[in-house]
Amino acid sequence: MLADWPSLLFNALGWGMATFLVAAGLTLIFGILHVLNFSHGGVFMLGAYVAFTLTRWSGTGGLASFLGASLLAALATGVVGLAVDRAVFRRLAAVDGAYVLVATYALLLVCNGVAKLVWGLNVFSAAPPESLMTVTVAGDVVMPHYALFVIGAGLSVYLGLEWLLNRTAAGRMIQAIAADPWMARLLGIDVGLVYTGTVVLGFALAGLAGGLLVANQSLSPDLAGIFIIQAFGVVIVGGMGSIRGAFLASLLLGLVDSFGSALLPSMPGILFFVALALVLLVRPQGLLGSGRLA
């Protein structure tokens, strides 16, 4: 119960970082294209399937193999993002945003169809790397090493995006385009190239999240919808397009979900939706919503 608050805090941190891994690419694409990519969950699922397949082919259970498979899954979904940008986003750039939403939902259906065609309807399970199957006990808190790894991965992705957006020339161009693409074009920035790079990075982050979290899920075509509701909630609460807001929201909603499950064990997840509704009523622009990608 609530007396076991250190364990609840650890679970909240694990939930938050896992959800942020999924939400990072979604936030990035919305921040610059202002498109809610409904296919994000499907890309996450394909990344998980690719990483699972590569790990099984390698025949090893080591951490290096696991990380390598996750990075290759990110590369594969990044290539998918390049194709989607050329075939969908660029072609629909001049039309009403509703058409883009319909197109991304259609892409989600395509991802589900590809998963069923290639891997079938069977449910697979993947074990974490052997080095992450142990636990550390600190007082009354049992900390699985795989959960610690996911927390570290979420923090690493956040710090990497912070560095990219706020410490590099590419990041400054991304922020300039997110704020005013017309003025950025007048300043000589290749807006189309930055758009493409952002889409590729967003899709790659979705694939990376799928690879890193595959050992935490039952792998099936239903995987596309497991994390995506939480990811959309994080993006909305944090402020549409704000990386820092998504990170903060993942922590806060993780706390809400963890303590809510302890308070109301018969209705797990209910406080997550209550918190989401309250934020939308009190601060509809989100915690850090400012129209700035940071």
Automatic annotation (TrEMBL):
A family per Pfam: BPD_transp_2
Tell me the domain of life: Bacteria
The record's family statement is:
Belongs to the binding-protein-dependent transport system permease family. LivHM subfamily.
UniProt-recorded name of the protein: High-affinity branched-chain amino acid transport system permease protein LivH
Q: Where in the cell is it found?
A: Cell membrane
Show the CDD domains listed in the entry: TM_PBP1_LivH_like
Record keywords, A-Z: Amino-acid transport, Cell membrane, Membrane, Transmembrane, Transmembrane helix, Transport
Q: In what way does this protein cross or attach to the membrane?
A: Multi-pass membrane protein
On whether Cytoplasm is a keyword of this UniProt record, the answer is no
Q: What is the lineage of its organism?
A: Bacteria, Pseudomonadati, Pseudomonadota, Alphaproteobacteria, Hyphomicrobiales
Transmembrane stretches, start-end: 12-33, 63-85, 97-121, 141-165, 186-215, 227-255, 262-282
